[in-house]
Amino acid sequence: MSPVVVMFVAFPVCLALGIPIAWSIGIPVAIYLGMTGMFQPTYIANTLYTACDTFPLMAIPLFVLAGTLMEGGGLSKRLIDFADSICGHITGGLAVITVITCMFFGALSGSAAATVVAIGSIMVPYMRKMGYSKGFSYALITASGCLGVLIPPSIPLVLYGIATNASIGNLFLGGFGSGFAVGGALIIVALIICHKRGYKGNGMKFSFRRVLITFKNALGALMVPIIILGGIYGGIFTPTEAAGVACIYGLFAGIFLYKELTFKKIVDGLINSVSTNAQILVIVGTATCLARMMTVENIPRLISETVQNATDSKFVVLLLINVVLLIAGCVMDASPVITILAPILYPIVAAYGVDPIHFGVMFITNTTIGYITPPVGLNIFVAVGMGDCSLRELIRPLAPFFIAMVAALMLITYCPDVVLFIPRLCGYGG
Predict the structure, then answer these.
(1) Could you tell me the pTM of the whole model?
(2) Which of 24, 277, 300, 342 is placed for a possible disulfide with 14 were both Cys, Cβ 3.0 to 4.6 Å?
(3) Are 140 and 386 in contact (CB under 8 A)?
(4) 3-class state of residue 2 by DSSP
């Protein structure tokens, strides 16, 4: 049997057996190298090292640390208060608050799971107290947590930029368009459900004075994306350096501005950052090995030629890619999907004239939906692990939000201006 066939058969078998994703990628690579006589421990070690030895990858643990510091410093609570003052009084207002706050917090953490935990731990008990059903409350925070990946800074966008040599700064700007589209779709669906079920707001009257007070309190948190993106586009620092600045700002805000960041929270943030980065780097390393083996076998070129020979329609190609990525997101974490598939798929769409920033944001939106689709579905298991909601209670209420996110994905796919509007305002020529 061909070594390539064995490699591609071994990969889904490893996943089906429940082997961790890094090993599920690494074992097929080792089998391939052994069958072809190329197995050299030094080659594997060098590939793992060079794959991870990139300056932009340093942004990932720093953004994770920054998000943890800001959460511990009380920034998430102030963001919720600000959102509550704006729309908490309307029918379904608490649902809208949840989505909007997740968008705000996405600008702090860059992580879907962190957003679910940080915002969900506050909003879910509040919603349950106000009469919202358990399934709806947990389903909403599970879906809204995905906005933590779309709204910059975003760890998957950093990984995509590294994998395809795309501008991380422009990807960040494009991510706003995707985040607003997905967030808007979630709000529309949530409001429809809330009006249908009669879910009320917080019972308070709208007060412009309260909006101003909560805005003032949340200003320290709202400044984060301005500092990060302003610094990048002002030429003051790179995305990686921006992550370091975010950490320093998180420390300052948590210790001096809000005075809620303790030594224990700082240590926990460091541990969380190291743990997250270690997992990502191992996956990136093994996925890079797999990508190199596929390059040796000319698989990317064969796939590209097959697709181009099959159809001349950009519409069909983008639809097929969306289907492939949605399926991949069901069985793999975002990191290996990006590292393995982005270098393969980008040359295909480039031949059809698709803008690299548009495709990158579309790609990441697909992987984001994977956070709420089993069997991987990281956000689902984080939400279930938070409280008293079972997987069965969560899945059904989650379906309308999944449909909303897919609808937003189609809008992003076939209306590039949704993604490219903000980058073009900032001088992007694509």
Answers:
(1) 0.82
(2) 24
(3) no
(4) coil
